[in-house]
Design a protein that fits this description.
Elements (H helix, E strand, L loop, with lengths): L2 H25 L2 E3 L2 E3 L2 E7 L5 E7 L5 H13 L1 H9 L9 E6 L2 H33 L1
Parallel strand pairs: 4-5
Antiparallel strand pairs: 1-2, 3-4
């Protein structure tokens, strides 16, 4: 098999694994300080040879520390998780899983907050301009 065919095969497996992992995390919750937390798979990144997979996770309702604790827990059980979630795929070698926090939701929140602040400042400046033009007349 040439490199191009191999990379296409790895890309297809990565997409299947993303769906499997997304389903797994959608069906399973984590308990943090007595609260049920659901993690969302935002992306799966494969190494060139497919032997390592980086599972990017995110959850909106918890602190960064709690997210990091969940990632450490998942990382300590990554071999078992790989076997449980990926054993249905026909892979020559079971890839090693690495978990990481994506941070995309935090970035989105910061962007939305910045947009709202700028919109509010534009509205205020527009109102001030309107008021000043009214008093000049």
């Amino acid at each position: 098999m040439n490199r191009k065919e191999n990379s296409v095969k790895i890309a297809k497996h990565t997409e299947k694994i993303k769906v499997i992992m997304a389903s797994f995390f959608a069906q399973n919750e984590f308990m943090v300080d007595g609260k049920s937390i659901y993690m969302t798979v935002t992306d799966v990144i494969s190494s060139a040879d497919g032997s390592h997979l980086k599972i990017m996770l995110e959850s909106h309702a918890i602190s960064t520390k709690d997210k990091e604790d969940i990632v450490l827990l998942l990382q300590s059980r990554s071999k078992k998780m790989a076997y449980i979630t990926l054993s249905g795929l026909r892979l020559r070698k079971m890839p090693s899983l690495h978990f990481a926090i994506d941070g995309i939701l935090d970035r989105n929140d910061r962007i939305l907050n910045a947009m709202e602040k700028s919109r509010d400042s534009i509205e205020i400046s527009t109102i001030e301009e309107d008021l000043s033009s009214m008093t000049e007349q």
